[in-house]
Amino acid sequence: MPSKIDLFSPAALSPPTGYSHVAIVESGKQAHVSGQVAYDPMGKVVGEGDIAAQAEQVYANLAAALGAAGTDFTKVFKLVTYVVGLSTEKAVAVRKVRLKYLGDGPYPASTMVGVTALVDPRLLIEIEAIAALD
Questions:
Q1: What whole-number distance in Å separates Cα of residue 129 and Cα of residue 125?
Q2: Which single residue of 8, 20, 120, 126 has CA 20 to 30 Å from 108?
Q3: Which residue in 115, 87, 96 sits closest to 54, CA to CA?
Q4: Which of 66, 77, 62 has its CA nearest to residue 23?
Q5: Name one GO molecular function term (predicted).
Q6: Residue 1, SS3?
Q7: Is the Cα dihedral 43, 32, 55, 5 positive or negative?
Q8: Cβ(107)–Cβ(16) under 8 Å?
Q9: What's the predicted TM-score (pTM) here?
């Protein structure tokens, strides 16, 4: 039986920007994707110093991981994004790339967190995902 995902934002909460406040998965298996960073398939950093280029690589890596698990962005119900030195400008750049992959919604429950560093000092962003499997 396919997993039913209900993504919504209660009227009692502030209007979200490209995410839902709540995700309910009624049943089924899940794929938990480890935090993806801006490494290409050879392990080289893509877009050093460029948050938009790194976000693009991260989302491409997420797409590959989700595909290998037998799912895709339409089944993602939770994203956590870590951004080094988070600012309004960086958040806008990341959201622009995110919308390219998530389309017109509904959007998964999401959290964006500013951090001081990631595992490699050249990395600016890391994103982990949870998706339903049919």
A1: 14
A2: 120
A3: 96
A4: 77
A5: hydrolase activity
A6: coil
A7: positive
A8: yes
A9: 0.87
Strand 109-115 versus strand 5-8 pairing type: unpaired
| Residue for token pair 């998706």 | 131
Strand ranges inside 14-119, DSSP E:
22-25, 29-36, 76-84, 109-115
Neighbours of 113 (CB within 10 A): 10
Say how far apart CA 67 and CA 72 lie, in whole Å.
6
- Length of the chain, in residues: 134
Amino acid letter, 115:
V
Residue type, 34: S
Please state, in angstroms and as integers, the Cα–Cα distance from residue 56 to each residue in 37, 126, 127, following that order. Answer: 10, 11, 11
The residue with tokens 């939770």 is 78
Strand stretches in 37-75, DSSP E: none
